[in-house]
Every structure is written in C-alpha cells, then in structure tokens.
Amino acid sequence: MTGSTAGPAHDAPADATAPAPPPILCQRNFQALFGGQLISILGERLTYLGLIGLLAEHTHHFADAKSPVLLSILANVMLAPVLLFAPFTGAWVDRWNLRRVLIVSDLLRAGLVMLIPVLYPVSHTAATVYGLVFGLFTCNVFFLPAKSAITPEIVPKSQLLAANALLAAAGIAATASGAPVGGWVVDHWGWRSALMINAATYLVSVISLALIRYRPHAPQGPRPEVSWRGYLREVGEGWGVLRRNPPVWLALTSLAAVWAGGGFLHVAGNEHIQRAASIPGMERVGVLMLALGIGSGLATWWVNTHGRAFPRPALLGGGLLLAGIGLTVFALSTRFAVFAASAFVIGLGAAPSFVLSETLLQEGTEPRQRGRVFSARDFLMRLVFLIAVTAAAWLTEAAGTRVTLVVCAAVTTAAGIAAVAWVRRGPAPAPATGSDASG
C-alpha cells in the first residue's frame, strides 16, 4: 500500500537543531491548497443557495405541501454517494497520487455544475437536478479524504493545527463572503447564474491545486496485490483505526453532533426562516450564513491561539453547549435580528468540532491509512446527517419547525455534556502545542 509524502516525513520526531519552518502561509504548497479551498468553497456556497433557490422556484417559494419532502430528498441525494461509496473508496485514495485526485475531482465537479442550468429547463423536473447532484457529490467522496490526507504531508507536524485552522478559516471566509453575495445573486440574477459562477470557481481551484509540489513516496515493500480479499482487508484496517482510538471517538462524537444540527437546520431551519420573513427569498439565508461564518471564524482563531491551553474535550464540549443555546434561541424566536445573533453563537460553538476533529484524526493515523480513515469519517458523518434530515422532515410535518429545532438543540446539548464528562475519564487528548498560524 502506498502512503504519500513529499520530502521528509513530517510524522517523524522533530530535530531540536533543525531550523524552524517558515510561517505556514509563506509555504508554497500550503498557499496553493489554501487558495484552492478558499475559491472552491466560495463557489460551493453559491451552489447550495442556488439549489435551494431552484427548489424554491419549483415549489412556489416552499408554499407547496411537498416542499419539506423535496428538501429532504435533496439532502439525501447529497449524502447517498458517501453512504454508498465512502466505506470503500478510501483504500483506493491511499494508493493514488493525492494531488491528482484533487485536480480530477474538481474538473468533474465543474462540468456537472454547469449541466444543472442547462438540463433543468429541458425537463422541468427535480429528478434531473437530483441526478446531477448525485454525480457532483460522488466526486466529493474522493476529493474530501484526499484533501484531509494530503495536508499533514505538505506541512510540518508542528504546524498541523495551524494549517487545519487556516483551512477551516478558508471555509468560514468563503461562507461569510459567499453566502450573502450568493443570496443576492440568486434573488437578483437567478439560481442559474449562481451555479455557473460556482463552476468557474472549481476551474480556478484546479489551477491552484496544480501548483502544489507533491511526490508520492515509494511504497515500503511490495505493493499489495489488487484482489477483493486484499481490498476488503485494507478497508477493514481503516475502520480498525477508528475503533481502537478513544480520542478519535471523542472527535467523531462531537463532529456528529454538529452534522446532526446541520441536518435539522437544512429542513426545519430553512422553513423557519422563510415563514418568519415578510418577503421570502435567499438573501436572509445568506445574511444568516454570514453571521454563522463570523462566529466560526472567531472561534477558529481562538482555538488556534488561547484555546491551545485548554483540554480538547473541554473545548469540544463547551462549544456544543454554546451551540445548543444558540439553537434554542433561534427556535423560540421569529425576529430576524435574533436569528442573526443565534447564528453567530451557533458558529462560535460548532467551529471547535471541525478544527480539532481534523487534527485528532491526522495525528492518530499513519500516512498510508489516512485516505481510509477520512473516508470512514465522511461516511459516518453523512449517515448522521441523513438520519437527521429524515427525522427533521417527519417531525416538521408533525409538530412544526419550532419543536423540531428545540429537539435539535437538546441533542446538541447532550453531546456537549458527554464531551465535557470525557475530561474525567482518564487521560484526555493533550492540549495542542506547536506554532500558531503565523508559523
């Protein structure tokens, strides 16, 4: 099985006499990865809002009784490729050139996004859109684990948390800028324009990723023979890493709570916002995503600076408790100003789960296993999201958006309590050390 490294192995113990690495943002490889992520995630925010806008047009601004079902189907179509393929694709990602996986995935995503505004007017059916979205998210099954696996191989280990914080910040910055702009684009230029802009951002990402200097190292020993038995054994090795690593379970539990919250907000949150608005549209959703992004950005900065002195379970649990409070306030209000404040608080609480879980998984796995581990992570999180959107669609129809969102807040709070209690279980994951984002 090939792992992939570029230059010296960053997982090796650091030499105390070696010169300090340059600031992370001054390193060409990380600049290219960071730039590609920033641009492509910016476009992805437009895609999400564009698809919601398409369904809003299709259902007369969610006035049709079938709108909760269509929103739930969209979420399920986004998740289906991960649930079907992610448990098995990680072993192949571990064999391939990771940079090549990223580039090919983005090229395919650009083409699929371009086809949505071309084919939907021909059929005028949601089924056409769902088919293309399925292909789009099949590309993600390869892109996401490759991105997570390549990060610890192009930056020094001492800067890994800083790198993950900055990559998270790229997503947050893209949300903060892309969401309000995307909402405006959908409402004024139409969802078709939003999708075409997204396709262009994927192509820009391809150019940026091509600048990464990356060379997979030679395999240690003979490459395993390609066979069903050997392939399934390699898949099982990845799942075994998750089972044997308690800190990884802590990270996955906290991350699962955030994904569950996202599933509830996708169904009940969108309807709650539109029904409270005097004029339905995507601009309000974009502004709320901006507030969410600002909160996440501040929390990401704090985790990578002052938060390094705190135990990771306390950071994860405290963040989830804070998110639970924000969700409760959001559920009980109909005022847009309160929605915005709640989104900011939810962003503050959710950010530690994304940054710390990525770092814990990278630190706890070997290079040759990372593709499988991150594919397993993606599978588990999308399964949680699928369960959440299905439950939210049923509960929203039965009891309304307010009750559904209160249930979501209760689940998030319970996960936060469990993470805080982890501190008393005996050695906890150590606080982060090493250089900050400045290198």
Which keywords apply here?
439 residues; mainly alpha; Growth Hormone, Chain: A; 13 helices; 0% strand; globular
What does this structure look like?
- The protein has a single domain (24-216, 227-425), classed as Growth Hormone, Chain: A (Up-down Bundle).
- Helix content is 75%, strand content 0%.
- The chain is built from 13 helices and no strands.
- The protein has helices at 28-58, 67-95, 98-123, 126-154, 160-188, 191-209, 228-243, 246-276, 283-303, 312-332, 336-363, 370-399, 401-421.
- The longest helix is centred in the first third of the chain and has 31 residues, at 28-58.
- The protein is globular, with a radius of gyration of 21 Å.
